[in-house]
Amino acid sequence: MEATTSSFKIILGSSSIARRKILAEMGYEFTIMTADIDEKCIRKEKPEDLVMALAEAKADAILSKLQTISNQEKDDEQKILIAADTAEAILQRLPIGDYVKDAVPTLLVTCDQVVVYEGVVREKPSSKEEARQFLKDYSGSHAATVGSVLVTNLKTGFRKGEWDRVEIYFHTIPDETIEKLIEEGTVLYVAGGLIIEHPLILPFVKQVVGTTDSVMGLPKALTEKLIKEAL
């Protein structure tokens, strides 16, 4: 698709390489800010509620940074925040004073994702052993990703977030492939140790019910929808 950000700015509130790649593929230019939060302190029973709450927490952390920056430097363009979580809860806390005066909006995008296996939420593996067990569980079975995206317009105060769920079915994954994945290490840094685009795991993905970009952490269609609504 062909997109432009000349009439607004985007801040991607994520350090994820995959999310950067996806947003760039969508045709957007953006800057990056990261949220320094303790994700383990936020607990929710339902995975959908958890990813939304984490996205909100990330947005709040970045908003604090933006508020500090806005006190030091004024921009001629409006800023929109895209974060993955419930929008209404954060609306009253937006530091939108300076952004209201900007000529164009800025969007902050924050996201979060977990894997669900047999009804249990899985976040990033805490060890190689846990990552190994995660992958063994997926072998010949299936799991789901639940991811959130939140968009906030700093000029207008509009904010909205939604979540997306994808089901992934696997063929039997050989033990040697699992060991190579553990040794390579990427699976240690992603939710549930699940990274279906990895060349070692891709041949063993049987079916994806949903979109691959959502599994990678940023559903394109949902993100595009939220950006348009925020503008």
UniProtKB/TrEMBL annotation:
A molecular function GO annotation: nucleoside triphosphate diphosphatase activity
A Pfam family: Maf
Domain of life per record: Eukaryota
Name of the protein in question: Maf-like protein
TM spans (from-to): none
InterPro entries: ITPase-like_fam (IPR029001), Maf-like (IPR003697)
Keywords on record: Hydrolase
